[in-house]
Amino acid sequence: MQISSARSRGDWRIVWRVANLTSAGIRLLDARFPHGQFRSGLMELVDVQVAPWGSTHLNTVVACNGNQGDVVENAFLITTVEWQKARWRILARLTVRFTAGGAPVAETELVTAQRAGFSEPEFQETVSEVPGSGRKP
What we know:
The strands form 2 sheets. This protein has a 5-stranded antiparallel β-sheet, with no helix packed on it. A 3-stranded antiparallel β-sheet has the order 1-2-5, with no helix packed on it. It has a single domain, classed as Immunoglobulins (Immunoglobulin-like, Sandwich), CATH 2.60.40. It contains no helices and 8 strands. The relative contact order is 0.20. The chain is elongated and about 45 Å long. A hairpin with a 2-residue loop joins strand 6 and strand 7. It is mainly beta and 137 residues long.
C-alpha cells in the first residue's frame, strides 16, 4: 500500500507499507518496478526484516510522469523475499492514477507469490511425448 509520494529531481520518492500476513518472519531482498510508465531499476535492500503479522515501510524512487486523470494500468512492484528458508517473488499489481499536481497515487489490485526459480530447468518436468498423441511437444 502506498503511504506517500514526493517529487525528487524529476522522479518520485514513494513510501510503501509492506505487510507480512504470515506467522513467520520475512526478509526483503530487493524491489523493482518494471513498467515503462512506472519504472525503477533493481533496488537491493539491506537487512529489511518484517516480523510475523507485522509491517515495515519501503522507500523507493520511481520514474513516472502524468497529468491529472492519466492512468497507468498493470504496473507492478516486484520484490524478492526470503521466507521459511526459501526465496519467493511477491508481485503486487498496481493501478496508478495521477493527481492535479502530477503526483502518482497507486492502488494495489492484486498480490501474488511464486517460488523464485520455479521456471528454471531444475523445476521443470521433462516431457518426451504428449500423452496419447505419439508426438513430442
